[in-house]
Amino acid sequence: xxxxxxxxxxxxxxxxxxxxxxxxxxxxxxxxxxxxxxxxxxxxxxxxxxxxxxxxxxxxxxxxxxxxxxxxxxxxxxxxxxxxxxxxxxxxxxxxx
Length: 97
Description:
The protein is an alpha/beta fold. Helix content is about 20%, strand content about 35%.
């Protein structure tokens, strides 16, 4: 998924929702706590237990000029592509998959 598409999907969701990543072989969700930009990709990682909110992600991404890069989630030296998201309003969470 491109970063610009992910930001468009999140635009209409409550900005206080927390962002997580779910990998099928892992039972728990990974909290997105760090965002790394390079010239050709955006990497979301889980380095702490405190997840970022949509507001924090949008604030960081507003400073980036080139948003037409692919978004990945990295954990244990492996990168996972992000294909979509699931909104959980009861938990105020967004789950990236």
